[in-house]
Amino acid sequence: MLTRSDFHIHATFYRLRKKDAAIGPTVREQVDVAMANGMEKIGIVEHCNYAAHHPFHCLVKLGQEFRQLKLELGKFFLGVEADLLADGQDSCGVYGRQRLGLDYVIASSHVGPGQQSQLSAYLKEEHRRICLALAENDNVEVIGHPFAGGSRYERSGIIPQWHFGLVPTEMLDEIVNLAKKSGKALEVNYSRMEDPAYQEFLQTMREKQVLFSIGSDAHDTGRQKKALQIHAMLQQMGFQKKCQWQPKTKRLL
Ligand SMILES: [Zn+2]
Ligand SMILES: [Zn+2]
Which of 18, 90, 98 has its CA nearest to residue 48? Predict the structure, then answer.
């Protein structure tokens, strides 16, 4: 049986927001819902990047709440979702990680139509960043939601319909091989899980015994349920527990 895990739960309470905007969940609120959902191991994150509404001090406050809760070691973890940069480095960095006392770093490419107007250029760029991070960035344990940004090209009207089959197989094979070689995990987190090409990608991950991490990417409490759906699907597909990633570091701060 796979562990019911979710290492991509956002506590959005601490980010800066416009006046009258909805207030996001605290660490406590996300933890309570995860426990009610029967989760066994979870990680709380927020974005660590250069966006104005995610200043570093918000992460400091989030970390303070996390530690004040005195959550059980080995079951609850503190991480960040850092932006995966053009050179394969991440926007948290070794220093940010130390300052925040993190258990892990997820690096996600958030390149989209704003940066690359053509889908083919986007795919190349995300592939390049992921490969660089897998090969060269030891600050990162997990690659967040590979190619999830593709659907933005459909929403922006750049392409008529997005599906995972638009990602060249050679790109996916290279990512899977590098993940295997580096011992880093690929996150399973995609809006259309039933997409046949995504299913094929998952089968390759399973066959090559690449580390995988379940992530709901829940920005509110309701979205956490997605992790249970992913868990059930991977279970059914025959994913092995020995390949299920979880943070190793013991918190020192
Ligand atoms: Zn993301
Ligand atoms: Zn996220």
Answer: 90
> Is there a domain that residue 251 lies in?
no
**Residue 113 sits in which domain range?**
5-243
For residue 30, CA distances in Å to 11, 97, 151, 192, 253 come to 7, 22, 27, 24, 21
Distance 47 CA to ligand 1 centre (A): 8
Q: CA angle 201-202-208, nearest 5°?
A: 90
Q: Is the pLDDT of residue 85 over 90?
A: yes
Could you report the per-residue pLDDT of 104-128, keeping only the tens digit for each?
999 999 999 999 999 999 999 999 9
d(CA 194, CA 173): 20
Residue ranges near ligand 2 (ion) with Cβ within 5 Å: 81, 217
Tens-place pLDDT, residues 177-221 = 999 999 999 999 988 989 999 999 999 999 999 999 999 999 999
Measured in angstroms, how far is the CA atom of residue 83 from the centroid of ligand 2? Answer: 10
- Is the pTM higher than 0.90? The answer reads yes
Q: How far is the CA of 239 from the centre of ligand 2 (A)?
A: 23
Are residues 78 and 43 in contact, defined by beta-carbon separation less than 8 angstroms? yes
Q: Output the domain CATH number for residue 236.
A: 3.20.20.140
